[in-house]
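Q: Here's a chain of 455 amino acids. Please give me its 3D structure as C-alpha cells.
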Amino acid sequence: MRKRRVFGLLVCVLSAIALLAGACGPVATPERIVETVEVPVKETVVVAATPTPVEAGEDTGKVFILGAFRGEEDTAFSAVVAAFEAENPDIDVVYAGTAEFETLITVRVEAGDPPDIAAFPQPGAVAKLAREGHLVPLWDEALAVYDSNYTPAWKELSSVDGTPYGMFHRVNAKGWIWYNKPAFEAAGYEIPTTWDELMALTEEMKGTGIAPWCEGIESGTATGWKITDWVENIMLRTQPVEVHDAWVTHDLKFSSDEVKEAWEIVGDILVDPDAVYGGTAYIATTDFKEPPKGLFTDPPQCWLHMQGSFVTNFFQAEVLADLDNMVGVFMMPPIDESLPFTLEVGGDQFVVFKGKDRPEVRKFIEFLGTPASVKPWAEQGGSLFPHLDQDLNWYPTKLERTMAEAITTATAARFDGSDMMASELNLAFWKGATDWISGARSLDEALAEIDAAVP
C-alpha cells in the first residue's frame, strides 16, 4: 500500500489568499491555519490541494479531500482511504484535516480553488454552496447507491431544493441519555419512558448527593452547539415536523411561542442549580467532552448525560474497556405523545465541487456508499453508519450495534436543526445559547438577538 501523503495547508491557503487579495481586496485570515501533522513515514511530501488545473472528465489518478477530521477521526478515515486505494491501486487519495475547515473552505471557494471533495458536517453550508452553483449534483450511479444502501430519509436529507448533492458516510443519532449502568441499577432506577417520568427521576436524584445531570458546552469557536441539540430534540418532541422545518428555515422565528416553549423545557433542567453538576457557570465554561466522564468518577458527579452516539469517544479508558457492562443508554422520551417519533441525526456529507467530478472523484464518492467503506471505521468503534448492507457485527460493542440498528431502521429522521440552518443563523444560535446559559442575556434577549442575525 502506498504511503499516505499529507497536504501542505500553507501552500493552499497562501495561494487562496493571494487570489482573493488580487480579486477582492484585503481578506481576513484565521489566526491558526496550519497544523503540524506527524505521520509514520520516512518523508513528508508537501503538495498543494490542486497543483494543476484540470477539466471535469480528465483522469488525474488523484483525489484531494478537505475536511474537519483530525486526531483519532483522521486515523479512522485514513483506514477508509486505504480500503479505497486497495480496490483502486491507480488512484491516490490525499486528505487534509483542519480545525479551521469552515473558514478555509470558504476562502478557497471564493478564490476559485476548491478541493475536489469536501466533507461537510453542516448541511446548511452545503445548501448555500449548492444554491450558489459551486457543487455538482449526484449523478445516476451515486443515486443508485443511495437507493440500494440507504433508507429514503438520507437522500432526502442530502438534497437541496429537491436535488441530492452529498453522500452521507459517518453519522450519529442524537438525543441519547447516558448513565453509569452498575450505579443506576444498584440505585434501583428504571428507564423513563415519558418526559414526566424523566422529570420525576430528576427530582428523585436530587436527594442522593449526586447531581442528576452533567453538562458542558465549551467548544472553541463552536461553543454553544451542545445546547442547540437540547432545543432541537425538544422541538421534535413538542411540535409537528412541519413546524420544526419552518423554524429551521427561519420562517418561524426563535421568539415564537412554539420555539420559546422548547427553550423553557430545556431550562427546566439546565438552569435548575440543583439539577446540573456545577450549575450554569460550569456548563458555560466546561469543554463538552468532559461532562460524560462525570458519570464514572469516584464518586460520580452525576447520574445522567445527554449526548450524541459519538460520546463513547470521551469515556475513560477503563470504561471503554468494558463498555457494554459499564454504560447504559436510552433515547430521550417523548413529550407530546400524539406526535410521531422523529430521530434527530447528524453526519458528514461528502460533496464534489463544480469542475472536479472526474472519474476517480466519482469513484470515491460512490465507494463511500458501500459497506467496504464502513467496515474499516466501524471496527474501530465510536462511530455509526446508515448503510443498510453493513454487518452490525463489525461494531465492537453491543451498545454500538443497538444504536446503529436504530439508525438503519428509523422510518423518519431530521438532520440536526442548527446544522441545517443558514450559517449566519447557526452561529447566532450557538452564541445565543451561550449567552443565555451563562446569564449574559435573558431568554427573551437571546432569542431576539438570534432572530436579528438574519435580515
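Q: Can you summarize the key feature?
A: Residues 174-344+417-452 form a domain with the D-Maltodextrin-Binding Protein; domain 2 fold (CATH 3.40.190.10).
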